[in-house]
């Protein structure tokens, strides 16, 4: 793998002597991911992974970032079924309107199930290459697969992470399709997440001022897809990034992270570090929730820094519609003459197609504005 002779140059992954497509193909064919590069002892970030300066200028990967005094809200679900329901609904509403991102505690998912899931993801990625290779695939039809950089052949620069993917979206995931190493922990975690999802669906319905069954009835979060990310240690974290700034296409994302940090959320024009809170599950409003809530709830940008010190492990569970072809638009009950629909109706399939082709996740620009009523005329 070709590396750069020196750092700090204004690099964009192109140039007369650089064949990016060839490097990407060679990297992909190793089927060993970024972890494989690190295991082979790379001391420099290969050029394929070096980001243009516009993505790098405001990173501070080895510090805890500027002390902004701001923290992602923590929502305590204790008592949400009875005595504290109204408080929890209010807290969720405020957090969804302002931050679009929150940490949930006392959510009912046992710590053992969370730790087991994170450990399974870590173990998968830290296996010898020979054990992982057979699972490496870019075939979307596979219910379980392992890959590095889903957008490797489209992005300007690759990111410093590998992923395993569990697709619970079309019916039940066959346990046989999942490597033995992850099987028990992922099904155990999924079972608990399903319960939490139902509770959050009711609470968020109420936070929108709707009947508690509303979001459940429209099946907007019926499917789950999970990404088990592994961010290996990085020799030059100032030249690359773990996950580029993006907002999620989902309705809601539930995110587990290990204790090493690296996640940042965009709030009031600043990048805010999300400090790991023991036992917490993070949640963030996705683009589709912003759309159906007619901009009441905000889907915000986030990113993950590459780090020199320790690997980061995370599990993102994307909650998506049961029927990908079904159209969703702003919820009628939320609209009146003072609050006309901001967005037109669109199916998740069509939205996601546009999301991928226009490069959200690559450039960070939200694609939601494209579906605004005024833009569609
Ligand atoms: C994602 C994401 C953050 C993380 O998968 O969409 O934002 O911590 N992940 O891995
Ligand atoms: Ni995300």
Low-confidence stretches: 1-11
Q: Would you count the extended β strands for me?
A: 14
The residue-averaged pLDDT reads 92
Distance between the terminal alpha carbons, to the nearest Å? 48 Å
Q: Give the helix/strand class.
A: alpha+beta
Strand count, sense and barrel status of the largest sheet are: 8 strands, mixed
Strand order of the largest sheet: 1-2-10-7-12-5-4-3
| Cofactors and ligands | N-oxalylglycine, nickel (II) ion
The H/E string reads HHHEHEHHEEHHEEEEEEHEEEEHH
Q: Tally the helices: what do you get?
A: 11
| Principal-axis shape | globular
Strand content: 15-25%
Question: What's the helical proportion of residues?
Answer: 25-40%
- The gyration radius over C-alpha positions equals 20 Å
Structure summarized in a few sentences:
The chain has 377 residues and is α+β, with helices and mostly antiparallel strands. The chain has helices at residues 20-30, 33-39, 53-56, 85-98, 111-126, 129-132, 180-207, 214-217, 287-292, 348-358, 373-376, and strands at residues 74-76, 101-105, 144-147, 162-167, 223-231, 243-246, 252-257, 263-267, 270-273, 281-285, 302-304, 312-320, 327-328, 346-347.
């Amino acid at each position: 793998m070709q590396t750069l002779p020196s750092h700090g140059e204004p690099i964009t992954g192109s140039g007369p002597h650089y064949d990016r497509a060839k490097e990407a193909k060679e990297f992909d064919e190793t089927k060993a991911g970024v972890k494989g590069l690190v295991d082979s002892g790379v001391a420099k970030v290969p050029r394929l992974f070096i980001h243009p300066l516009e993505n790098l200028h405001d990173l501070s990967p080895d510090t805890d970032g500027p002390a902004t005094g701001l923290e992602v809200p923590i929502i305590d679900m204790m008592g949400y079924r009875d005595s504290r329901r109204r408080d929890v609904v209010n807290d969720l509403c405020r957090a969804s309107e302002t931050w679009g991102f929150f940490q949930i505690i006392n959510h009912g998912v046992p710590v053992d199930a969370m730790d087991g899931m994170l450990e399974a993801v870590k173990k998968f990625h830290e296996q010898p290459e020979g054990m992982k290779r057979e699972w490496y695939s870019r075939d979307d039809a596979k219910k379980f697969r392992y890959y590095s950089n889903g957008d490797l052949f489209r992005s300007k620069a690759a990111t410093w992470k590998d992923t395993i993917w569990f697709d619970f979206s079309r019916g039940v995931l066959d346990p046989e399709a999942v490597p033995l190493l992850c099987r028990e922990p992922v099904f155990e975690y999924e079972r608990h997440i399903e319960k939490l999802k139902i509770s959050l669906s009711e609470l968020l319905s109420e936070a929108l001022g709707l009947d508690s069954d509303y979001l459940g009835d429209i099946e907007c979060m019926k499917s789950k897809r999970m990404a088990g990310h592994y961010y290996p240690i990085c020799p030059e974290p100032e030249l690359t990034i773990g996950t580029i700034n993006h907002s999620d296409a989902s309705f809601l994302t539930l995110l587990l992270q290990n204790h090493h940090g690296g996640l940042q959320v965009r709030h009031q024009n600043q990048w805010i570090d999300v400090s790991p809170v023991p036992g917490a599950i993070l949640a963030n409003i996705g683009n589709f929730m912003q759309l159906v809530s007619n901009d009441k709830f905000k889907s915000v940008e986030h990113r993950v820094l590459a780090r020199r010190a320790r690997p980061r492990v995370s599990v993102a569970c994307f909650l998506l519609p049961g029927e990908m072809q079904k159209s969703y638009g702003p919820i009628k009950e939320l609209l009146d003459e003072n609050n006309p629909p901001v967005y037109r109706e669109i199916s998740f399939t069509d939205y996601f197609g546009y999301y991928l082709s226009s490069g959200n996740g690559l450039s960070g620009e939200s694609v939601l504005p494209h579906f605004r009523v005024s833009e569609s005329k």
